[in-house]
Amino acid sequence: MEHRNLIAVLCLISAFILPINAELKYVDASRLTLIGKVMPTPENVYHRVDTVKYNDMPFQVKRLFTHSAGLVVSFKTNSPTVAARWTTKGKGVMGNVTPICDRGLDLYMNDGGKWIPVGAGTPSAGKAEQERVITKNLKPGVHRFLLYLPLFEEVCSLEIGVDEGSFIEAEPSPFRHTVLMYGSSILHGACASRSGLAYPARMSRNTGINFVNYGLSGNGKMEAAVADMLKDIDADAFILDCMPNPSPEEITERTQYLVNTIRKYHQGTPIIMIETYMRENGYSDQAVHDRCTRQGEAFVKQYELLKKQGIKDLYLIRDNHAIGTDHEGSVDGTHPNDLGFDRMVEQSDYEDIKEIRNQMIKEKGSNFSSLFLFMEIVWRWRPMGGIMLV
C-alpha cells in the first residue's frame, strides 16, 4: 500500500513539473517572416543594424540597435495553441516600463481583417531564458499572427511552439512600402505597456504601411556616422523624429548634414521632420520648458534654412499637443503611457495633411506615386516627437 501511495505521489508531482513543451513542437522563428529589418545583420538576425559594418557609430547607438524594437514575426498556423521560447541578453527591467514591453513578447491575430491582441509572453524576473504559452484554445482553422519582439532588449534566440500535428509556416508581411523612422525613446517604445502598442507598430497596423522602428532611447542625436548609415537604407520615405535628444546646439550643427546626406543618396524621397511636443514635466520645470522651447526653435530654423537652400521633398510636422492637454498622457513626465500613445496615433490634423499634400503636388506635379496618397492616410494618425530617456 505504501509503495502504491508513493507511486501516486510521484505521478502527481510529475504532472506539476511536466515541461511546457511536452505536447508542443518548436520552430526557429528566423525561418519565418521577420518584419522590420532593412538590412542583413550577420552577427544576430534580431539586431536592427549591422553594428560591425557601421562600427563608427557611438557605442550607445550600436548597443541600442541590438535591441529588437519594431521587429515582428509573421506566420500562420492551424494550432489551437501558440507558445514561445526565447532568450534575452539582459535579465533586468527598466524602472519606467513593464516587463512585457522591456523583454517580453506580444502576439496579435488577424480576425476578419483586423489585428487583435491575443496574448503576451510575460518574462520571469531575473531570468534570461523564458518559455510561455501565449494563447490557447483557439477556434479551429488557420490563423495569421504577428509576434512583436521585445522593445528594450537584445534577443539571442526565439522559437515559436505549436501543437504536435499542427503546421506553422511563414506568412508574407501584411505591410507594404518602407518608411524608415529615426528618433528617440518614444519612437523606440517608451513607455508602451506592450511592444505592439509602440506607435510605429500601431501605425503599421492602422495604415498597412511598414513603419520601421529606428528609435534610440536618449541617443537619437543625428551623429554623422548615423547619417552615413541611414543613407544606405532603401526606403520610400524617411521620418526624422529625433528633435528631443540633441541639444539646441547639436541640432544646429547636425541637422543639415543628416538631411543633405539622405537627400544626396535618395533623390525625390520624402523626408519628414517632426517637431516634438512639450514634455509633461516642462509645464512645471522651467529649465525643461526652456530647453524644449530652444530645441524646437532650432529644429524649425534648420528646416527653414534647408528649404531656402532648395532642398526638395522636405516636410515639417508641427506640434499640436500630441498627447493631450489634460496632462494625463505620460508615465513619468517625459514618456507617453498607453493613453498618450493612443492620442498620438488617433490625433488628426487635416490642415497639416492638406498642407503637405499641396506641397507635394506643387513640387512633384499631380502625377506623384501612390506612396504620397498613402502618406495622407499616415498623417491622419499623426505621430509627434519623442523625448529623451533620462
Task: Explain this structure.
31% of the residues lie in helices and 23% in strands. It is built from eleven helices and 15 strands. Strand 5 (105-111) and strand 6 form a beta hairpin. The strands form three sheets. Strands 2, 3, 5, 6, 8 and 10 form a six-stranded antiparallel sheet that branches. It is globular and about 65 Å long. The protein has two domains: 21-36 and 71-170, Galactose-binding domain-like (Jelly Rolls), CATH 2.60.120; 176-378, Rossmann fold (3-Layer(aba) Sandwich), CATH 3.40.50. With 390 residues, it is an alpha/beta fold.
Residues in β-strands, percent: 15-25%
Helical fraction equals 25-40%
CATH architectural designation of the largest domain: 3-Layer(aba) Sandwich
> In angstroms, what is the radius of gyration?
23 Å
Task: Please tell me the total number of domains.
Answer: 2
Intertermini distance: 65 Å
Instruction: Tell me the name of the CATH homologous superfamily of the largest domain.
Output: SGNH hydrolase
Coarse morphology: globular
The name of the CATH topology of the largest domain is Rossmann fold
User: Biggest sheet, in brief?
Assistant: 6 strands, antiparallel
